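Progress note, sequence design subtask.
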């Protein structure tokens, strides 16, 4: 069966990167109806569109929660994988960064929501809102809650948070920032450099900003530190139901 799968994959005229991605995804587990890379990408594109619409319907305010991340991931991948919306049960290594402890995904998101809400409350300028969104990207990518699809889930939530503040844009309707640019912004954010992501969001939504604004890290971004165990004085949960 593995040989047949590899033969079908070889016949699909994929690039080396696409072939590597498809083989890795297939081994993680896809639904039986998804038998090719093109079907996989088409289903995800449709899922991202549905997730975007759902976030607009609930007027997502840019503050990530565990439940919202799970629902967004489920919307994107429900027609692709049997584990859509489920947090990883394993500690993962993503580009040299270790994910959050599988047993602490929800507390990590509780802490992120608390931090994000604190930043949002004082975001009286476009720079500060972009700063908050870029920090969310860094934290969500370092938490790395899902076995696959963290970048897609994070990008959809980030763009919805930008749209909540700045209105609709072509970049949101197309669901992702330009591929290579977004990839480089995420890599920098994961390392703690928030400026590329913040400025890319501002530019994409036609906003202006001061080049002197300091997009420094407002909080630590690495998971599994002692603050996760603290009792939040004001736990923040966004009650949502994605229809």
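Output:
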């Amino acid at each position: 069966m593995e040989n047949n799968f590899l033969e079908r994959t070889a016949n699909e005229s994929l690039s080396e990167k696409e072939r590597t991605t498809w083989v890795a995804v297939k081994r993680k587990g896809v639904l039986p109806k998804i038998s090719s890379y093109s079907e996989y990408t088409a289903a995800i594109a449709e899922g991202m569109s549905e997730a975007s619409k759902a976030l607009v319907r609930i007027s997502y305010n840019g503050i990530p929660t565990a439940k919202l991340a799970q629902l967004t991931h489920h919307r994107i991948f429900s027609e692709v994988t049997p584990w859509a919306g489920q947090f990883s049960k394993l500690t993962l290594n993503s580009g040299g960064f270790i994910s959050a402890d599988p047993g602490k995904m929800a507390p990590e998101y509780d802490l992120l929501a608390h931090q994000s809400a604190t930043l949002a409350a004082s975001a009286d300028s476009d720079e500060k809102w972009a700063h908050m969104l870029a920090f969310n990207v860094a934290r969500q990518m370092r938490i790395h809650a899902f076995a696959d699809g963290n970048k897609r889930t994070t990008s959809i939530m980030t763009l919805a948070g930008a749209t909540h503040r700045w209105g609709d844009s072509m970049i949101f309707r197309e669901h992702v920032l330009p591929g290579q640019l977004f990839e480089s912004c995420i890599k920098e954010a994961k390392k703690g450099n928030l400026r590329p992501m913040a400025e890319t969001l501002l530019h994409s939504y036609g906003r202006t900003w001061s080049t002197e604004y300091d997009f420094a890290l407002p909080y630590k971004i690495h998971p599994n530190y002692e603050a996760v165990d603290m009792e939040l004085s004001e736990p923040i949960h966004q009650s949502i139901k994605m229809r």
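Residues 134 and 198 are 5 Å apart (CA to CA). Work on this subtask will continue into the next period as scheduled.
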